[in-house]
Amino acid sequence: MFNATQIKILIATFFFATVVLFAYFRLKESPSPHGIAIVGEQRIDFSIVERSFQLEPKWGKGLTRKQAYYNQLNFLIDQKLLAHEVRKMLEKKPDETLRGMQDFIRRKESIKALYRDEVAAKVFISGQEYEDAYGKLKRKVRLRYFSTPDSLAAIRYYAMLQMENFENISLANPVTERKVVSGWMTFGDLVPLFESFVFDLQPGQVWKPQKSDGVWYVVQLADSRVEKFTSAYDFALKKNHLRKIIFERRASKIANTFIKELMEDKDVRLKTGVFNRLYEYFERVVQKRKEQPNAVPPVNLTDDELNRLSSRVEDIKNLTLATHKNGRLTVGEFLKRLSYMPDALRPKVALSTQLKNAIGVIIRNDYLYELAKKRGLDKLPAVQKEIQYQSDRLLAAYWRDNQAKHITVSDRELDSLRNTSVYKKLKKQFTKEPQKAQLEAFLREQKMLGKKIALLNSLRKQYTIRIDSLEFEKKISDLDKTITYDPAPMIVREQFN
Fold first, then answer.
1. How many Å apart are CA 249 and CA 238, to the nearest integer?
2. 226-235: per-residue pLDDT in tens?
């Protein structure tokens, strides 16, 4: 992937993943040409409410859809009010990490706009391609294959499979070669190279040796089965799934070409000595994961791991880790940039090659962001709206975390709680005597809620809040229908690395 002196920029595409009920009430009504609600000078579009309704629901069974949507809108209004408050706090006392996290959001959304222009807009899938893919999706196959780095060995396996049973053929070099019988697979489960021929094979038929990523494969179709039921309705149901598979494959090629052209003259070089010292620190942190055998190890770097790293690399934090056409990246700056990313979006760094890739991604994204800004993509209304929404969420969470640091619970308060009817309800909820930690968490949450309500009541008097109720309710289907279910938890994972 990388040599000792120059980083090969890793190509990556940028694809896009307790019920709390708020009081239902209407605020001052006034039609707005800029959205269904305005808080101060900021608007809230229905698209944001709709997304929030699905991904961070603040409603539950028993409400009408109208009440549920107003709950969600009020949640977003409260979020904006808290964000306003935090911005005022930051004017007096700036927070470097929070500023860095906001900058990451701005960069990410600008780069995603560039991706839409340079990659997504150039992917076209014809009707015939959908139909061909649908036909393959209806067929499941099991494969037998040999893999080897040696082209001559691949030719020998190919010849032997013509005459002997797969089971009777032994590997010539078990260290570097593999003999595999796959499970059932269909369209999308195989690499495109295999899909180009396996769905046309008959059971027992062997395909000529094929090379993929430096390895030779000799493939035999072990078995196949076909789902005979097809219909226009079934095709329509499967079309989104087919589009995702075809789109990602095609987009990956376009993105490869685009990134290669962008980075070919950027002269990105890794400082090998500094990198090796940094990797030693990373290795020790990752090693800690193995000391907890029963725990599921994190996929990406956690905040705790980054904090431990930052405290240990003081001796090398100002050293240059990599250079490129427009400047350099120090160890300290690299770790800061990682800390500004949400956990789920940080690159993997467990292996040496992964750490090199992560360095390449940081530098590559700088050039992508500069290009996006040059084209004015960071100023697009859709991009600005998304940046605003994500920043509001970030700042509201910051307010909560900041307040939580100052909330304490005394033993006297715990004793008082045990003598209330609320305690009886908690016992039923936990199905046994609540532990002290659980009671403390409950009281902290109640105190937090009290602080939040008091602040929001004050902020509602400071900012003009308007809702275009007519426009809002026009967009809600089945207004008076009662919801008969609680929202299902959803996990949406954004990819950006």
1. 17
2. 988 889 999 9
